[in-house]
């Protein structure tokens, strides 16, 4: 089983929008709303490919949270929502351009308190063989505890991975440095990777339409018409992990990941275009 620790977000996505103009109404062609967040999207993507997944996150008791819960349940994700946290589900409003580039506005909601008092993921470890931490920079509690979670996972004999994300506070190596000794795989895009000294960690660099680089080997991307890049990197991670847990070698897992990233960018929203394993690789 894959255990994912990360954020759950309800996304509103619209586009294409080339520019904003105050005091005017913009009429995008496409709107999408629903499950998002690094943790939620990665968990959904891996489960859509047939992996058993448990997600540890925080979710508000509101309409947005209920939609996210239902979406996760639809692919069999065992979602564990941290108790004792009051507030609304995290929300993101996003706009995308015709070339797939995006701009996001975020409200953290319950994520502001998530993981703060959770010093161990061991209580959620039954049947787990892989821990993935999705963007520790998105949640203050994960900034605090990510290294601890990864260390105890390695001590338990699990495979471990971490998806970097963008650090708006600029604490890059202060947060990530203590995690690296316990990471089997580090995922990052090129801009994020420039802020990190990876050392001996096995690294996957996500390069969008160009595909990815796995431990220095380039794996070409799949040509599709890009609609919206929101969540594509998280779908990539879910694809890579799901393929690896099926026993595929890293470069083959990267090809699966590229295919899942391509499916994600082909429509608005992170997960609406994702297909099951048999449909993707028949």
Task: Summarize the topology.
Elements: E1 2-6, E2 9-15, E3 30-36, H1 38-48, E4 53-57, H2 63-73, E5 78-81, E6 90-96, E7 102-107, E8 130-134, H3 140-155, E9 159-163, H4 172-176, E10 185-189, H5 190-193, E11 202-206, E12 212-214, E13 217-219, H6 232-245, H7 250-265, H8 277-280
Parallel strand pairs: 1-4, 1-8, 2-6, 4-5, 8-9, 9-10, 10-11
Antiparallel strand pairs: 2-3, 6-7, 11-12, 12-13
Helix pairs in contact: 1-6, 6-7
- Supply the helix-strand structural class: alpha/beta
Q: Give a quick account of the main beta sheet: strands, pairing sense, barrel closure.
A: 9 strands, mixed
* Radius of gyration from CA coordinates: 17 Å
The number of helical elements comes to 8
Percent range of helical residues = 25-40%
* The CATH homologous superfamily: Ribokinase
- The count of strands amounts to 13
List keywords for this structure.
single chain; alpha/beta; 8 helices; 9-stranded mixed β-sheet; 4-stranded mixed β-sheet; 13 strands; 282 residues; UDP-N-acetylmuramoyl-L-alanine:D-glutamate ligase
Overview of the molecule:
This protein is an alpha/beta fold and 282 residues long. The protein is 29% helix and 24% strand. It has a 9-stranded mixed β-sheet with strand order 5-4-1-8-9-10-11-12-13, with helices on both faces. A 4-stranded mixed β-sheet has the order 3-2-6-7.
Quick synopsis:
This protein has 282 residues and is an alpha/beta fold. It has helices at residues 38-48, 63-73, 140-155, 172-176, 190-193, 232-245, 250-265, 277-280, and strands at residues 2-6, 9-15, 30-36, 53-57, 78-81, 90-96, 102-107, 130-134, 159-163, 185-189, 202-206, 212-214, 217-219. It starts with a strand and ends with a helix.
């Amino acid at each position: 089983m894959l255990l994912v620790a990360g954020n759950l977000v309800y996304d509103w996505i619209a586009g294409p929008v080339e520019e904003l103009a105050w005091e005017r109404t913009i009429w995008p062609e496409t709107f999408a709303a629903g499950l998002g967040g690094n943790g939620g999207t990665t968990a959904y993507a891996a489960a859509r490919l047939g992996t058993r997944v448990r997600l540890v996150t925080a979710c508000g008791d509101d309409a947005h949270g209920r939609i996210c819960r239902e979406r996760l349940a639809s692919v069999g994700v065992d979602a564990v929502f941290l108790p004792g946290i009051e507030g609304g589900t995290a929300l993101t409003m996003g706009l995308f351009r015709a070339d797939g580039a995006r701009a996001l506005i975020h409200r953290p909601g319950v994520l502001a308190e998530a993981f703060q008092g959770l010093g161990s993921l061991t209580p959620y470890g039954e049947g787990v063989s892989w821990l993935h931490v999705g963007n520790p920079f998105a949640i203050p509690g994960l900034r605090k505890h990510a290294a601890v979670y990864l260390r105890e996972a390695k001590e338990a004999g699990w495979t471990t991975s971490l998806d970097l994300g963008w650090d708006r506070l600029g604490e890059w190596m202060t947060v990530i440095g203590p995690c690296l000794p316990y990471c089997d795989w580090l995922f990052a895009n090129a801009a994020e990777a420039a802020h990190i000294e990876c050392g001996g960690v096995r690294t996957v660099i996500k390069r969008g339409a160009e595909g990815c680089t796995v431990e220095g080997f380039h794996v070409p991307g799949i040509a599709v018409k890009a609609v919206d890049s929101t969540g594509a990197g998280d779908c990539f991670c879910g694809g890579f992990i799901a393929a690896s847990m099926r026993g595929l070698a890293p470069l083959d897992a990267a090809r699966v990941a590229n295919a899942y990233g391509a499916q994600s960018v082909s429509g608005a929203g992170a997960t609406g275009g994702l297909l099951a394993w048999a449909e993707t690789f028949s």
